[in-house]
Amino acid sequence: MPRQNDENENNKASLPELVQFIVIIACVYCLMSLFGSSLTGEGGRQLGNYLRNSWGGPVIVIILFAMYISAAKLLKFRVLKLRRQFFGTIILYVSFAFMLGLLNESGWTSELTLLTAGKFGSGLAHFCVLNAGTFITLILVAACFILSAVFFGSKLMRLSIPKIPRLYHQRRQLSKNRKRRRTQRPSQQKTETETETENIPDTDEIPIPTGKIVFQPPKLKPAPEGKEINLPERSEAGENQDTAEHIVPVIGNAVEVIDNALALINSDELKPPVQKSSKPSKFPSKKLRRPLPAPSFTVENIQSENQDNIPEKKSPLLYDESAFPPPPELFGTKTRYEPDRQILKNSEKQAKTIITALRNFGVNASVAHIITGLTFIQYQLELSPGTKASRISGLADDLAISLAAVSVRIEAPIPGTGYIGIEVPCAERKFLPMRNYIESEEYKTSAARLPLAIGVQADGRIFTAGLEEMPHILVIGNRGSGRRMFVNASIVSMCSRRKPEELRLILIDTRRADFAVYDGLPHLLASPVTETDSSVKALTWAYDEVERRTSLFSGYRVRDLTAFNKKQKNGGKLPEIVIIISELADLIYSAGNEVESIIMRLSQKAGAAGIHMMIAAQSSSSDIITTMIKSNIPVRAVFSLPTEAESKNVIGNSDAVRLTGKGDMILRNEGGEAVKNVRCQAPFISEDKISEFVEYMFSNLEPTEMMKF
């Protein structure tokens, strides 16, 4: 019987939820019918015509209110003042219908479905205008709106009736004053303890026996004469314990002892001093201050038999935990991007132009999705059955002429979908600030140890990838394409995620123009290398470090750096090292085959040892980006290139020629483990923000040991 009762109660409880869910579905169906959606069928079309003709477009207010109440009941949210909201909604509907009916009487018409008054609004307005006139009808419409606002909790009516709030506040103030008088009224009867303590004269401080826990209360009043203080006697079982040393003598009565103890706690004697940092910071902020230590009592004369087993205190941190990671405010302001209506209208016109141009070339397709990005607009087309994707791949120039665009890129097909992508540059391009990237959920929740700031995709999603998974990357782009900006953003992204003891950088800048701003960064293993001989020595040291780490891993029977660091519990963890080359052509032309051979050996063995490379190059000719380099470094970040020959040498097609520059890039992975082609807009960070970032890290983190090559 109890089980049957429980089942009946569950059925009764689930029935209202089912009704509320059905009401929500019915409201959604009515909304779709009201807007004339083709998904509702013939019945929806008739229902929509009935609602618009009989009750008018303002009936959407009642439908939305019913859906809101049902959803709140279904999700068990509390609805405040349901009756007032109900009557306010009804009056609001009447107000809108009344106003639209009055507009229809004046001869105003609109093509929008929601601006129809219906028979109810038109009849009500016609009756009022015919009997009361237009002026009175306008006053009635205004009165309906004001009444609905009053039901929804508006304070407009208080302006016209000022006496009621005054009387209310006066009564409230009187009641508060009465309560204060009752609490502040002194009691006429005094207790015996109060009369005794008032007659006690003040004397000097009474000495307290010394013990293990030193607790010194302020000056206390002694007990009156004739009264003895009975201390608890020592039990026979505890004769061997020094209990007398732990007992604080009770002085006076219990009430006075408690009052004195509370006065001592609230006094300034127990408040800890504020610890000021010895190193000044250029970026003062409340978030960067250390919390004050908790108050503690001093303990003296403690001698433990197990002092040898007490673990030693750890060495203090080399940095302030609140100063790392750096605050997002360091990277400037955050920008919000919303597509304009004009851009959306132009994109719809361009979509029609694309479909017309493709039909002229014998390709039948339809637009499935239009995605508006910061740099370009992507039109995802669905080809008709029997149409080959190869027929549309060579029509990029023809579509550019039809759209009067600078360039058009065709991606056939889009990886993971059944659509063909046509990418057209935006008339007004926008940039992604570095702060937007740092505060994005993709960057915060990324599991990558060395996240690279790839950028934002066409659909607005932030794309980030870990350098440790690649494990090396080629960055290729012409002057002004955004190549240096991508490298700078990647350095800031990695250093904002990892501490100096976890990540060290080797910056090779033979042109002496790219990495001079990073001098002083605590993550550097050495100062930026600017000489060719020093660059060769740095690469040679890196290869020797790979050999040393490989032999060390074999002794621990592990394969990579992550598994090795997991076994190092008491220190001894090795940091990851990233080698960044600003221009590969300078090293190739000056050092020749020596540099290429070292890079080949590093690319083959350094990834598992925790040493990674980011190689940037302006020239992508075959004598710089050789076949050996491309075969050992499959991941490439390609920016705009001047010729199709260079583009085909790097990514195998001419897509790099059709990029618009200034951070517009394609990330290509020839290994096949990740996405083949991803077009992104790299984040933007200025030189001033980089200087502030380096200065912030230098002023808040302890300097590390530097090498010299």
Written account of the structure:
β3 and β4 (420-425) form a beta hairpin. The chain is built from 22 helices and 15 strands. α2 runs parallel beside α5. The protein is of the alpha/beta class. The strands form four sheets. A seven-stranded mixed β-sheet has the order 9-10-11-8-12-13-14, sandwiched between helices. It has a four-stranded antiparallel β-sheet with strand order 1-2-4-3, with helices on one face.
Q: What order do the helices and strands come in, and which of them pair?
A:
Layout: H1 2-34, H2 41-55, H3 59-74, H4 82-105, H5 118-132, H6 134-151, H7 163-184, H8 192-198, H9 254-266, H10 341-360, E1 365-372, E2 376-383, H11 390-393, H12 396-403, E3 409-411, E4 420-425, E5 432-433, H13 434-438, H14 441-444, E6 451-456, E7 462-466, E8 473-476, H15 483-497, E9 503-508, H16 532-556, H17 561-567, E10 576-581, H18 584-591, H19 593-605, E11 611-617, H20 627-632, E12 635-638, H21 644-651, E13 664-669, E14 677-681, E15 683-684, H22 687-700
